[in-house]
């Protein structure tokens, strides 16, 4: 899928509405429309990369920025002190449904591992 067909590229470009939580130079953070936790925010790159592996191969420093923004989101959402999870799905077999790299910031409830 090219960036022009990508739902997240369209959100970044303002063609599809979303609830924006934060904006930074290289990322935009939006509320997930199907939240899996009380806090569920997606940190999306403005530039199109299909998944976390492709971002790592690009070696552009964007993963650092995603992690920084995820922490800023967690602070703003009030979950930084209690803890939060930052999740990347890479590939359809593990649940990636939008093939544009994005980190899921999840918090606001217990998420012990392994699940009990």
UniProtKB/TrEMBL annotation:
Motif Histidine triad motif, chain ranges: 100-104
Positions of the HIT domain: 7-116
Active site: 102
Record GO terms (molecular function): catalytic activity
One Pfam family hit: HIT
InterPro entries: Histidine_triad_HIT, HIT-like, HIT-like_sf
Family matches, as CDD domains: PKCI_related (cd01276)
Name listed for the protein in its UniProt record: Histidine triad nucleotide-binding protein
């Amino acid at each position: 899928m090219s960036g022009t067909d990508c739902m997240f590229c369209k959100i970044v470009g303002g063609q599809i509405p979303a609830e924006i939580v934060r904006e930074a130079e290289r990322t935009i953070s939006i509320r997930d429309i199907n939240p899996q936790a009380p806090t569920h925010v997606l940190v999306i790159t403005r530039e199109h990369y299909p998944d976390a592996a492709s971002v790592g191969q690009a070696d552009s420093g964007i993963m650092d920025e995603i992690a920084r923004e995820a922490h800023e989101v967690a602070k703003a959402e009030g979950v930084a002190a209690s803890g939060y999870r930052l999740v990347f799905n890479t590939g359809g077999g593990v649940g990636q449904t939008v093939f544009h790299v994005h980190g899921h910031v999840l918090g606001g409830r217990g998420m012990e591992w392994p699940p009990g």
